[in-house]
C-alpha cells in the first residue's frame, strides 16, 4: 500500500473519523485507525464498538491531490498517527506500508516509521440491509439533536434514559428525551415516501457526535435502521450507532395540558437573569433558584441565595403575565439548557402548581417543541 495525499484534506477527514475512536478499548485494535486504499479512493474507519464512522476521500476529489501507487489496507495507532500527521512540515505527505505492516510516513525532510496491524483483524462494520431510507434536512436534524440530547440521562442505572426516543409515523418524526427531572420533545413534519415506521432509542452520546460532523454545507442526512443498528449517511461519511434495547417510558402523559399561571419572556433576557442567579445557587449545596409570579401586581421576581456568600433578587422583564400567584423553585442548570435550546425568540411558560412540572414552548411554534422541568421541593 502506498499513496500521497494533501495533508490538510486528510486531517479534515481524520478528525471526523477519530470521534469514534477511544483511547482505551476492550478490543485493542479498536484504538487504531483503519485505512483502506482502493482505485476509488481512500477510506478511513474508526470504531469503539458503540459508534463506527467511515469516511471516504475519493480519488477525484480536487482538494485531496490523492495519488494511488499501490492499493491495500492497514490499521495504525490512531492517537500517535494523528499527532504525527498534524505536525508534518509540508502540505503533501506520503504513506507506504511494507510486508511486515511497518508504515513509513514522509513529508518534506521528515520521515517516521511506525508499526501497524493487519487490517483483516479489524472488526467488520455492521451490515445495514435496509434499502428504504429516510432523508432529513441536515440543518433541521442538527437542530433536533441539540434540542433533545440536553435532557438525556447520564446515569447508567437506567440505560434506556441515556438515549433519545425516535419514532416515525406517517409524515411525523417525534424525538423525546428525559432524565426523569426534565424532558425535551420535538416534532417534525418529514417526507416519508416509503411509509416507514420507526420506534427506536438512539444513545445520546452517538447523536452528540453525529451533530459534530453535520457541517453547514451539507444539504441532507439519510437514515437507515435495522434491528439493532442505525446508519446515518452525511455526504461521504457513514455514521453507525448501536440502538438501545428496551421500552421507553410513555412520556406523553407527563406533559400537562392545562395551566393556572402563564408568563411570556424573551428567552435571552430570562436566560441572562437565570445565569446571574445561578452564580449564587452554584455556591450553595442545593443549587436552587426561586421564581415568584404575582399577576395581580404584574410582578415577576427571581431569587437565589448562598448561606456562605449572600443572596440575589432581581425583578424580571416579561411580555405578559396572567393567572394565579405562584412561588416555585427549580434547578437553574435545567432552565439554562432549556432556554438556550430555543435561541433568540419569545417563550411561553405554563405552570399548574409549585410542585408540578412546568413547560416552556416557543411562542410561535408551540405545537412542535416543548421543554418540561420538574420543580424542586424546598420545604
Automatic annotation (TrEMBL):
Q: Name one GO biological process term.
A: DNA strand elongation involved in DNA replication
- Write out the GO cellular component annotations: cytoplasm; DNA polymerase III complex
Q: Which Pfam families match?
A: DNA_pol3_beta (PF00712), DNA_pol3_beta_2 (PF02767), DNA_pol3_beta_3 (PF02768)
Q: GO molecular-function annotation terms?
A: 3'-5' exonuclease activity; DNA binding; DNA-directed DNA polymerase activity
Question: Any idea where this protein resides?
Answer: Cytoplasm
InterPro entries recorded:
DNA_clamp_sf (IPR046938), DNA_polIII_beta (IPR001001), DNA_polIII_beta_C (IPR022635), DNA_polIII_beta_cen (IPR022637), DNA_polIII_beta_N (IPR022634)
Record's SUPFAM superfamilies? DNA clamp
DNA polymerase III beta sliding clamp central domain residues: 135-250
User: What region holds the DNA polymerase III beta sliding clamp C-terminal domain?
Assistant: 253-377
Q: Which UniProt keywords apply?
A: Cytoplasm, DNA replication, DNA-binding, DNA-directed DNA polymerase, Nucleotidyltransferase, Transferase
Q: Where is the DNA polymerase III beta sliding clamp N-terminal domain?
A: 1-126
Assembly behavior: Forms a ring-shaped head-to-tail homodimer around DNA.
PANTHER family from the entry?
BETA SLIDING CLAMP (PTHR30478:SF0), DNA POLYMERASE III SUBUNIT BETA (PTHR30478)
Q: What does this protein do?
A: Confers DNA tethering and processivity to DNA polymerases and other proteins. Acts as a clamp, forming a ring around DNA (a reaction catalyzed by the clamp-loading complex) which diffuses in an ATP-independent manner freely and bidirectionally along dsDNA. Initially characterized for its ability to contact the catalytic subunit of DNA polymerase III (Pol III), a complex, multichain enzyme responsible for most of the replicative synthesis in bacteria; Pol III exhibits 3'-5' exonuclease proofreading activity.
Q: Family membership, please give it.
A: Belongs to the beta sliding clamp family.
Q: State what protein this is by name.
A: Beta sliding clamp
Species source reads: Agrilactobacillus composti DSM 18527 = JCM 14202
Amino acid at each position: 500500500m502506498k499513496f500521497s495525499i494533501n495533508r490538510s484534506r486528510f486531517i479534515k477527514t481524520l478528525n471526523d473519523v477519530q470521534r469514534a475512536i477511544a483511547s482505551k478499548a476492550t478490543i485493542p485494535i479498536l484504538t487504531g485507525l483503519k485505512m483502506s486504499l482502493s482505485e476509488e479512493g481512500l477510506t478511513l474507519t474508526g470504531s469503539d464498538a458503540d459508534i463506527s464512522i467511515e469516511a471516504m476521500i475519493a480519488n477525484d476529489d480536487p482538494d485531496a491531490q490523492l495519488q494511488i501507487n499501490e492499493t491495500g489496507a492497514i490499521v495504525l495507532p490512531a492517537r500517535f498517527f494523528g499527532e504525527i500527521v498534524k505536525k508534518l512540515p509540508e502540505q503533501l505527505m506520503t504513506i507506504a506500508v511494507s510486508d511486515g505492516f511497518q508504515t513509513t510516513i514522509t513529508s518534506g525532510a521528515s520521515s517516521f516509521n511506525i508499526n501497524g496491524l493487519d487490517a483483516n483483524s479489524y472488526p467488520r462494520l455492521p451490515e445495514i440491509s435496509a434499502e428504504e431510507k429516510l432523508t432529513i434536512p441536515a440543518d433541521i436534524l442538527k437542530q433536533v439533536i441539540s434540542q433533545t440530547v440536553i435532557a438525556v440521562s447520564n446515569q447508567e442505572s437506567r440505560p434506556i434514559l441515556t438515549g433519545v426516543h425516535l419514532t416515525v409515523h406517517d409524515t411525523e418524526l417525534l424525538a423525546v428525551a428525559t432524565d426523569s427531572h426534565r424532558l425535551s420533545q420535538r416534532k417534525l413534519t418529514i417526507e416519508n415516501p416509503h411509509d416507514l415506521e420507526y420506534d427506536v432509542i438512539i444513545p445520546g452520546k452517538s447523536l452528540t457526535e453525529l451533530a459534530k460532523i453535520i457541517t453547514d454545507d451539507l444539504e441532507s442526512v439519510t437514515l437507515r435502521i435495522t434491528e439493532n443498528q442505525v446508519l446515518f449517511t452525511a455526504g461521504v461519511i457513514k455514521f453507525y450507532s448501536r440502538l438501545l434495547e428496551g421500552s421507553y417510558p410513555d412520556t406523553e402523559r407527563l406533559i400537562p395540558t392545562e395551566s393556572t399561571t402563564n408568563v411570556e419572556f424573551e428567552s435571552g433576557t430570562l436566560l441572562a437573569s437565570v445565569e446571574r442567579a445561578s452564580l449564587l445557587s452554584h455556591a450553595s449545596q442545593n443549587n436552587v433558584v426561586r421564581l415568584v409570579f404575582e399577576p395581580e401586581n404584574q410582578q415577576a421576581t427571581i431569587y437565589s441565595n448562598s448561606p456562605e456568600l449572600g443572596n440575589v433578587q432581581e425583578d424580571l422583564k416579561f411580555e405578559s403575565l396572567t393567572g394565579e400567584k405562584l412561588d416555585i423553585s427549580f434547578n437553574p442548570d435545567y432552565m439554562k439548557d432549556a432556554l438556550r435550546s430555543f435561541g433568540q425568540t419569545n417563550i411561553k411558560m405554563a405552570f399548574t402548581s409549585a410542585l408540578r412540572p412546568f413547560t416552556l414552548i416557543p411562542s410561535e411554534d408551540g405545537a412542535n417543541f416543548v421543554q418540561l422541568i420538574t420543580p424542586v421541593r424546598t420545604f
